[in-house]
Design brief:
Helices cover 47% and strands 17% of the residues. Helix 2 packs antiparallel against helix 3 and helix 2 packs parallel to helix 4. The protein has one domain. The protein is elongated, with a radius of gyration of 17 Å. The chain has 4 helices and 5 strands; from the N terminus they run H-E-E-E-E-E-H-H-H. The strands form 2 sheets. A 3-stranded antiparallel β-sheet has the order 1-4-3. By secondary structure, the chain is an alpha+beta fold.
């Protein structure tokens, strides 16, 4: 795994592991019409990183349970968030293609938030609902991480413009469904 990929993975995982701090952090919820500008990236770029930019995004959830007609019911909410103060860029290395690449990282996060919602909706929970949701969440996060890495690899971090454009079209199409 290359240095850039490791740095991106570490920052991405850091964002995911800080779920308990979401309320004290500045966060942006994913919205269909929201598009990044470079001013959204408020974090300081690590001196040692060779990456041009990093989008810190993640999925969080909350849930509650109740009984209705003696049957366990689960009410849940799933959110895709962008963390501006954990996201950064190096102006001398970035352009509009880089910004679009970073936007797609956030869009991919929303795609996996939807997958998590769908899986939760299709699950018949037992009295171990907390563990069951946590396991579904962890599996989804692993899939999200793998997909983000595949995206970076195939697009060469936005440098392969024809492949980048293909990814944009595919993700936009799926998000419109």
């Amino acid at each position: 795994m290359g240095l850039i990929k490791k740095a991106h993975l570490i920052l991405f995982l850091f964002a995911l592991l800080t779920i308990s701090n979401v309320q004290s952090q500045e966060v942006v919820s994913w919205e269909p019409n929201f598009r990044f500008t470079w001013s959204d990236f408020k974090g300081a770029a690590p001196i040692t990183s060779r990456a041009a930019a990093t989008t810190a995004s993640g999925i969080t959830y909350r849930f509650s349970t109740f009984y209705e007609n003696n049957e366990l019911q689960v009410d849940y909410k799933v959110f895709a968030y962008f963390y501006p103060t954990k996201s950064w860029y190096k102006p001398k290395l970035c352009n509009d293609d880089t910004l679009l690449h970073e936007q797609l990282h956030f869009d991919i996060t929303e795609l996996y938030a939807r997958k998590l919602r769908k899986q939760l909706a299709g699950t018949k929970f037992t009295k171990n609902v907390k563990e069951e949701i946590r396991n579904i969440y962890k599996a989804t996060i692993r899939q999200l991480n793998d997909f983000q890495n595949k995206y970076d690899s195939e697009t060469n971090y936005s440098r392969n413009l024809p492949v980048q454009e293909r990814w944009v079209k595919e993700i936009e199409h799926v998000l419109k469904q």
